[in-house]
Amino acid sequence: MVEATLTHSTTLPQARQTQLSNTQSNTYHAKVIALIKNLNSSNLPVQQRMLYFADPVNYFDQGQLTRQQVGAAIRAFEKKWPQREYQIVDIQPYHINQNTLSVSVTYTMTYRLVNSYERQQGKVDQTVLIRNIGLGDPQIHEIRQTLRLF
């Protein structure tokens, strides 16, 4: 049985205002939040989540991976951990570069992973570099994390 849930706080920090209009900033902020939520949602098929990544992408400690390799890594993780729970607890303030329409966002999640042999839980800080935030579909060009087991 596969179980996965993702919850998030409704009071996430707003994007820092720069030269962007309030409407642009709110639109970009909404795209960033949606991308982060969808990236960490096991309710979306792997094929759909793969589309959030550039091809290639700097993927955690695995270096440059193609989109297909990212999909394989996600499938392997989900096979190892069939029960997964994530909760976004904080998003650090960030600045959208209006010239490149890119943003580096760090957010903190709690997680609980369970399989038939073991359990893990803790906090993780993930940082994503997102490009094309103001164009069609933003894409992740880099993702990295720092785990904190407890």
Name a few traits of the molecule.
150 residues, alpha/beta, Nuclear Transport Factor 2, Chain: A, 7-stranded mixed β-sheet, 7 strands, disordered N terminus
Layout of helices and strands:
Layout: E1 3-8, H1 22-39, H2 46-50, E2 53-59, E3 64-65, H3 67-80, E4 83-91, E5 103-114, E6 119-131, E7 139-149
Structure overview:
The chain has one domain: Nuclear Transport Factor 2, Chain: A, CATH 3.10.450. The chain has 3 helices and 7 strands. It has a 7-stranded mixed beta sheet with strand order 1-4-5-6-7-2-3. The longest helix has 18 residues. The two termini are 26 Å apart. The relative contact order is 0.21.
Query: Counting H and I runs of at least 4 residues, what is the number of helices?
Result: 3
Number of individual domains: 1
What's the rounded overall pLDDT mean? 81
The beta-strand count equals 7
Roughly how many Å is the radius of gyration?
Answer: 16 Å
Q: Which spans of ≥5 residues are poorly predicted at pLDDT below 50?
A: 1-18
Task: Tell me the distance between the termini.
Answer: 26 Å
Structural class: alpha/beta
CATH architecture group name: Roll
Largest sheet: 7 strands, mixed
Q: Summed up, what is this model?
A:
With 150 residues, this protein is α/β, with parallel strands linked by helices.
